[in-house]
Amino acid sequence: MSAPDPPAPGTAPAALARELRGLEPSCGPVRLVAVDGHAGSGKTTFAGRLAAALGGAPVLRLDDIATHREFFGWTARLRRQVLDPLAAGRPAVYDAYDWDARAFTARRTLPPAPVVLVEGVGAGRRELRPHLARLLWMEVPAAAAWARGRERDGPGLAGFWDDWERAERAHFSADPSRPYAGLLVVRQGDAYRLVPGPATAR
């Protein structure tokens, strides 16, 4: 089956949902779709709206996978607990991290649904890209995204944000996601505009 035409620039999550449903599966029976971008860029909100447009698609939040000690060193665990089961058509059962308790305190299940969203910083990283049907990038500059995140979390987490920004800079310097994005997601007020990403020019 040939891939469907991508949604026209300016369309909303509903049109993107229709396009995603028509893609070839990328991880077993699953169309795994990444929503990447800088911390504070609005990935969680957009992924929630896209999941709703998909009729309640499951969402894997990388905040559940990362830890204080492993901001980005979680790929082996993600492969073992999530990618391998989904590739085999089985539910993925993974440990979820509690950032307040600084420990894994829950187990969650991710069904092998037709479309599964992965949202978080690094969702489009090198190790994940072979398993993705589509990579979306939230088009917000790093400084603006980080400022938004700091304002959201308050001064009590200023030290955490200092550490995070250093780690995120190092991660994207070594393993950038944006060049491989098929679509850029631009927020305009309470709506979104989709524009072709750098990968479309490859």
Task: Describe the protein.
This protein has 202 residues and is α/β, with parallel strands linked by helices. The chain has a domain at 13-62 and 114-201: Rossmann fold (3-Layer(aba) Sandwich). It contains five helices and eight strands. It has helices spanning 13-21, 43-53, 75-87, 142-153, 158-174; strands at 31-36, 59-61, 92-98, 103-110, 115-119, 134-138, 183-188, 191-196. It has a six-stranded mixed β-sheet with strand order 2-5-1-6-7-8, with helices on one face. Strands 3-4 form a two-stranded antiparallel ribbon. The longest helix has 17 residues, at 158-174. Residues 1-10 have low confidence and may be disordered.
Which strands sit side by side, in order, in the main sheet?
2-5-1-6-7-8
Low-confidence regions: 1-10
CATH superfamily membership of one domain, which one?
Answer: P-loop containing nucleotide triphosphate hydrolases
CATH T-level topology of one domain:
Rossmann fold
**First-residue to last-residue Cα separation:** 22 Å
What fraction of the residues are assigned to beta strands by DSSP?
A: 15-25%
Shape assignment: globular
CATH architecture label of one domain: 3-Layer(aba) Sandwich
SSE series: HEHEHEEEEHHEE
Helix amount, in percent?
25-40%
CATH class of one domain: Alpha Beta
Spatial extent as radius of gyration = 16 Å
Mean pLDDT: 92
Treating each run of at least 4 consecutive H or I residues as one helix, how many helices?
Answer: 5
Classification by helices and strands: alpha/beta
Main sheet specs: 6 strands, mixed
